[in-house]
Amino acid sequence: MLQMKGITKNYPSVIANDKISFDVKIGEIHALLGENGAGKSTLMNVLYGLQNLDNGEIFINGQQIHISSPKVAADAGIGMVHQHFMLVENMTALENVMLGLHQAKPPLLDIKGTREKFNSIVEKYGLVVDPDLPVWQLSVGEQQWLEIIKLLFRDVKLLILDEPTAVLTPAEAHQLFTTLRFLISEGRSIVFITHKLDEVQEIADRITVLRDGKLVGTLNKEEASSFQLSTMMVGRSVTLERRPRPIITEKSPVVVIEDLQCKNERGLTALKSINLTMYSGEILGVAGVDGNGQRELAECITGLHLPTHGKINILGKLVSKVVDDSSLLGFIPEDRHRTGLILDFTVYENLVMRTYKDPPFDWHGKTNWGKVKTFAKELIKRYDIRTPTEIVLVNTLSGGNQQKVVVARETNGQPSVVIASQPTRGLDLGAIETLHELLIKERNRGAAVMFISTELSEVMALSDRIIVMFNGEIMGEMDGENANVLHVGEMMMGHRIEN
Amino acid sequence: MKKEYQINQLQINSLGIIDFLLASSRPIFSVIMAFLVSGVIILIQGINPIDAFSAIIRGAFGNIGSIANTCVRATPLLIGALGMTLGIRGGIFNVGAEGQLYIGAAAATTVGLLPLPVPSWLHITLSLIAGILGGSLFAVLPAFLKAYRGISEIVVTIMLNFVGIYFVSYLIHEPNLIGKADASYAQSRDILPSAALPVLIKGTSLHFGIIIAVVLALILFSVLKYSRFGYRTRMVGANPEAAHYVGVNVKRSIFTTFLMVGGFSGLMGAVEILGFKHSIFDYFSGGLGYDTVAVSLLGGVNPLGVIVSAFFFGSLRAGGNLMQQTVGVSTYMVQVIQALVVLFIVGIGFMKPRIRKQKSTTLQPIETNNLEG
Predict the structure, then answer these.
(1) A107 cis-preceded (ω within 30 degrees of 0)
(2) Count of CB contacts below 8 A, A vs B?
(3) What per-residue confidence (pLDDT) applies to A120?
(4) A45-65, pLDDT tens digit by residue?
(5) What is the percentage of chain A residues whose pLDDT exceeds 70?
(6) What is the average pLDDT across B349-369?
(7) CB within 8 A of B49, min separation 6: which ones?
(8) Judging by DSSP bridges, how do beta strands A448-452 and A282-287 pair with one another?
C-alpha cells in the first residue's frame, strides 16, 4: 500500500530522519517504535504533508506521489490522529465531523445525512460517541474515537495514530485495539506510533524501530522478542564503559521513601506504593521506559509534586513543600529548556537561581550582582562551562554546556541528595561522558545520587545499584556491578525476576 | 506541574542601559514609519504633512507653557506605563489600567475632599496612598483569577474596565457621595486646595507629579535590576516553570506583582486628579490607561525607555491641539500615529524570532554540539 524510500529530513542542528525506508502492506498494523526524539513523528509528519522532505521518495499503491500538504495526503487516503487532538472544543461531535466535509447540497449543511452516517459508523465500529455533545464534555477516550470517526467519514485507507494510548485508560486502550483489528480486517492499514513495547507486541503485525533518526530494523511480530526490541530501541551505537570508582564502605540512608503513591497530571495513578531508600555515596540508577512513573518519583522527592499517600524523608526531615535548600537537594530536571533554565537570562543569572536569596548575594533585599558574577566565573571554571563570558544569554550555549550550567547551579552547594532526571537527553557522546563524570564526583563526595534514564547502557555504566520502574512500580533491584542486561530488559517489560 | 502559566510571547530585551540603547533602534524605526504612514494620510486630506508635524512640535515644545503641557500629559502615562512594565516583566499583561485608574482617582478624590486637620503635604500623601490602594484593590480579582485559577488576565481586566468606569460615573452623579450638586456636566466636587499637588512653575500647569513619575521610574529600574524582589519577579515572568522548579512561589509572586501593577494604575489616576484635573468627570482620562500598553512597549519594557516614550506620547497629545487649530488636521490623527507606532513595534517583534532562528542555524548548533565546540 505504502512505500517510503530513503526519507531524509534535516533540521537546523539535527538530522531528524536519515535515509529511512518504511513500508505498510494492505491490511496490517505496522508499529513504529522508538524513544522520544527518535524521528517517529517526523517521519509521519512527512507522510502527512506537514513537513517537506529533503530527500527520498514516497509511493502509494505503486505510484510515486509528492505530498506537499495534508490535503494531498488526505486525497491519497491517508489520515492521521495526532497526539494532541485537532477538535473544536465548543462544537458538538457531529459538527466536528462536518467541518470541511463535502456537503450534498452546498451551501446547506446535510445534517440529517451526516447524522445517519455518523450513527452507522458508531454502530459498525463500536466507537460510542454521542453526536450532540460538545467536544469539551467528551472524555479523552471519546475524543479519540471522534478523531477516528472523522477519518472513517473520509474513508481513509491508511490511518496514522500518534501515541494513541498515551491518554487512554487500560479499558479504553483495549477497546481501541479491538477496533483497530476490525479496521484492518476491512483492508485498511494502520501505522501505530508508540514507545510502549507491550502494546507493540499485543497489536502489531510488523514492527519498525527507529533510533536517533535512523532505521534500526523492521521485524515480523513472530521474530520480535521484547528483549530484542528493547535493545534495538534504547541501545546506543557506542557502548559506554562502566566507570571505575572508589569503593565507599560507609553508607548511611539519606532519602527514605515509604509507601509512596501519587497521581499524574491527568489524575491517573502514577506511582503505586514505592518503598525506596537512597544511601550516601551511591548512584541509584532508575531504568525503565519513559513514562512509567520516573518523573513523578523525582518530583515527589524534590517536593514539586505532592503524594496522595506515604511519605518521604530527607535526612529525617519530611518533604512537604518544594525543597529549596541548596545544601540539601540538587535537582537536574528532565527538560532543561522548559524547567531547568531561563533561556532569556544570562549565564550568571541562571547560576544564581537557587541561591539568590542567601548571603553573600543578598544584602537586605538587594542583590549584589558583582559577587554573583565572581561566583559565576568561579563555577564556569570549576565546571568547565564553555562560554565566552558569564554575561551571555544561556541560550547561546551548546546543549552540553547548558546542562553544565544546571548541574553547576544544583550541585555547587554540596547537597546531600542529587536527583538527575534524564540529564543526558539530547546530548552527544562527549557531553554525556562529562555529565557522567560530574555525577560520579558527586557520589564520591558522599552525596546520594539518583540517576534516571531511559538509556539502559547509561544506567548500566553509571549505577551502583539499579532499580527498574514499570507502570508506577519498582519491578526489582540489583547490584550495579553485576547487573544482567537481560534481566533489566525483562523488568522494563513488566516482568518480575526473582534473583 | 500543570501548565497554568503562559510564557510571555512578547519579545523583551534584557534590562540595562546598553541593552536599552541597542534595543532602541526598533522603536525609533517604528516611530519614523508611523510618521511616514500618517504623513500620507494627511497628504490625502490635501494638507502638507510637514506643516502638520511642525505644528505638533511647536505645540509640544514651542514655549515654556507648551513644554509644561507636554510634561503634564506625559506624567500619568509614565506612571501607568511603569506599572505595565512591571507587569510584563513579571508575567502579567494588565489591560485593566483604565478601570484601575478610575477607581484610584475616585479614592484619591474622596480623601482629597475630606477637610483633614493635617498639613498639606500629609493630605496629599494620604490622597495618593488612597489612589494606590484603590487601584490595587481593583486588581485583586484579576490577580486572584490569574495566579490561582490560571484565567487569562487580559479578558478579565478588559471587562473590569467598564465596571470601574461606570462605578465611578455613579459616584460622581450622586451629590451624597462625591458628586457636585447642580453641575451642568456630572462631575465630582473639586478637591480641597490642601490636597492639590503643588505647581512647579507659576502660570503653567506643570505640577509636582512629574517628579513623582520620574523618581518612580528610576526606583523601578533599580528594583527590577538590583533587588532580590526584582530578580524573582523577572524569573517568574521569563519562565514560570523554571522559577517554580527552583522553589519560587510563582502563584504568590504573580498575585503580589499584579496588586503592585494595579497600584501604579491607581496612582496614575490619583496624580492626574490631584495635579491637573482637580475633579473627576465622566471619561476624564481619555483612554490614558489603554495608552500605557503602547508607552511601555515603545519604551522597550524598560523603565528608562518608558521615560522617553512617555514624553514622546505626551508631546503628541500636547501638540495635537495646535495641529488642529492651525492646519485643521483633527487631533484624532495623534491617536492614529500612536496606533501605528504600536503596530510597527509589534509587527517587527513578530518578525524578529524568525531572523534570529536563521542566524542560529549558522552560528549555533543547538543540541548536538560537542563540548569542545
Answers:
(1) yes
(2) 113
(3) 92
(4) 889 888 888 888 999 888 898
(5) 97
(6) 37
(7) B38, B39, B40, B42, B43
(8) parallel
Q: Which fold has domain A253-492?
A: Rossmann fold (3.40.50)
Using the beta-carbon criterion (under 8 Å), do B366 and A304 form an inter-chain contact?
no
Same CATH topology for A2-234 and A253-492? yes
Q: CA-nearest residue of chain B to A340?
A: B242
The answer to whether B9 faces chain A, any CB pair under 8 Å, is: no
Could you say which of A13, A333, A342 has the minimum Cβ distance to residue B367?
A13
Distance CA B146, CA B138 (A): 14
- Convert the pLDDT of each residue in B156-171 to its tens digit: 999 999 999 999 999 9
Q: With CB atoms and an 8 Å threshold, state whether A12 touches B361.
A: yes
Q: Please tell me the number of Cα atoms within 13 Å of B358 on its side-chain side.
A: 4
Contact B97, B156 (CB under 8 A): no
**A14: nearest CB among B245, B367, B373:** B367
What is the model's pLDDT at position A12? 62
Per-domain residue ranges of chain A: 2-234, 253-492
Q: Do B231 and A431 touch (CB under 8 A)?
A: no
Residue A239 confidence (pLDDT): 55
Residue A131, pLDDT > 70, answer: yes
Contacts of B232 in chain A (CB under 8 A): 356-357
Strands A214-220 and A253-263, bridge-based pairing: unpaired
By C-alpha distance, the chain B residue nearest A362 is B228
pLDDT at B176: 81
Q: Confidence band (pLDDT; 50, 70, 90) for A37?
A: low
Which single residue is written with the C-alpha cell 486572584? B144
Closest Cα in chain A, distance from residue B370 (Å)? 6
Letter string b/e over residues A305-338, b meaning 16 or more CB atoms within 10 A of that residue's CB: bebeebebebeeeebeebbbebebbbbbbbbbbe
pTM for this model (two decimals): 0.76
B227 DSSP 8-state letter = B
Report, as an integer, the average pLDDT of A265-276.
86
Q: What's the CA gap between A230 and A208, in Å, rounded?
A: 12
At residue A482, does pLDDT exceed 80?
yes
The domain made up of A2-234 has a fold known as Rossmann fold (3.40.50)
Average pLDDT over chain A reads: 87
Check CB contact of B6 with chain A, cutoff 8 Å. no
- Comparing C-alpha atoms, which of B71, B337, B346, B332 is closest to residue B213? B71
Which of chain B's residues have a Cβ under 8 Å away from the Cβ of A331?
A: 245
pLDDT band, residue A236 (cuts 50/70/90): low
Mutate which of A265, A339, A419 to test chain B, going by most B C-beta atoms within 10 A?
Answer: A339
- How close A337 gets to chain B, by Cα (Å)? 9
- CA pair distance A337, A315, nearest whole angstrom: 30
B17-359 — its CATH code?
Answer: 1.10.3470
The predicted pLDDT at position A1 comes to: 82
B203: left (phi over 0), alpha (psi -120 to 50) or beta: left
Q: How far apart are CA A232 and CA B11, in angstroms?
A: 43
Indicate whether B354 pLDDT > 60: no
DSSP state of A297: H
